[in-house]
Amino acid sequence: MEQHITDRIVGTASAGRADTARTDTPRPDTSRTDEAAESILAGRTSLGVEFGSTTIKAVLIDEHQTTLATGDFAWVSHLDSTSGQPLWSYDEQEIWQGLQHAYAQLAANVTEHYGVTLTRIGAIGISAMMHGYLAFNGAGEMLTPFRTWQNTNTHEAHERLSALFSFNIPERWSVAHLYQALLDDEAHLADIAYLTTLAGYVHWKLTGRRVLGIGDASGMFPIDPVTHGYDERYVDLFNALPEMKRRDWTLTDILPEPLVAGQFAGQLTKQGAALLDPSGHLESGIAMAPPEGDAGTGMVATNSVRKRTGNVSAGTSIFATVVLEHPLRELRPEIDIVATPSGDLAGMSHANNFTSDLNAWVTLFGEFAQAAGMSMPKADLFALLFQAAVADDVDLDCGGLLNFPFRSGEFLVGLEQGRPLFVRSPEARMTLGNMMRAQLCSAFSPVKIGMDIMTKDEGVRVDSLVAHGGIFATPKVAQSILAAAFNTAITVMDTAARGGAWGMAVLADYLSHDDESLADFLDARVFCSTSGTTLEPDSYAVAGFERFFSRFLAALPVERAAVETVPLDAV
Asked: Which CATH topology does 294-354+449-538 take?
């Protein structure tokens, strides 16, 4: 059964890019171009930059949170073997190249659309992929290549710390990376002076401040929801570990200071302004918001910061997050306990893999279309293939087709590495619709594992679940399959494609509205006129997904065999 919140349907039939939320700058209404230009010149704007898995995005908004201009830069992780084992990383130089390119493109859009030069901004916020490992010495030099959240080499650290704390420390958390380095007695630890995330690193270089938004900080080390600092019990336990005895630093010495949304996090320095905008047009002294992780900006972008609200953020990875009324009853390795930008605890089911394999298949179909003389825009290709997944003749259980979308390791199913794999039984019904539905069902299957634990085993209550990301821009396709996977209503707002960079810009804007709670600010000022579409789960689709999911779990040994037998670097 479908229930419309309003008559307005999200997206269009030709929209739908799965790899990243779209932040294309809309053509400005000429009637308000002068007003926008005035806001820009007066600095009544906020800038959000988010370092996503595939795209660095910059979004400039006005005081009404309307997008004025955007910029982006495509990048991709790679395997780095500097440490002796292949680890997922991004080049340090590309961090700054991407930031400058995205900002320059945004500034050029401002000049093109509004006829003014961007020199003043009211507030700036930096966001990025959470977790990972960025370690620096006292001179500010990076000690190892950036180790991203995709790495699963930290399983021993995850198990030991989770047992020590009786609190889940996922493999991708920064403290798991740190402890694994301690267990491996890595030489660089003798020189470590600072450990942070990607957002914290960029913010530090722009402001000189070693701080971090509490949501991002909660993916480094457990947070105390009362003090809004790191949990001192766990800090003491970590500092007492045998591996720490010969270190002349403690955990508190090297971690950034957590800040909640609305707290002043420093100013853009002259050096920072030159780093962000080498053209020299941008002024220094701009207020900076606490740098946040992509989970926190996803919560903001979907208005999901109140207790019993939740969101599903889908991109290269996917996570389903619910703001908790109370702690979980027991340690659940499948659930991350993180914090909202305001410091409330939230439960997260996080899957490392989502659109990478799907994008590869769509690219393949695109090459076929081009070879057949039917080249089409990528957005149209996504929409065409997505619509096949919900056609009338599709099998709701995917007709016996299975797909394993694991480009990298996946903790939720016990994989240290991944090998994308498509498999079918001899009598499976191999159709385009079934194949595309298998792609989408498999992409949602890992995150369903953790979500089922929260809602079925832990009794976590969810009043609303909002999905966002480019994959939801094609109306109702991914939304209906997610509703079937979770067996719950899924809402997609008309802001679904704005993404985390816009959410970070909103958090920057919140610096001037911190006299009210973040939840009230979002309700009253940001989402007061937002509409969208809610889809209730279809009982037949739910049953079909459950049949697919059972086969997916039963066939995981096939994926594990692929990891064991197919070389990581096979070509």
From this structure: Nucleotidyltransferase; domain 5 (3.30.420)
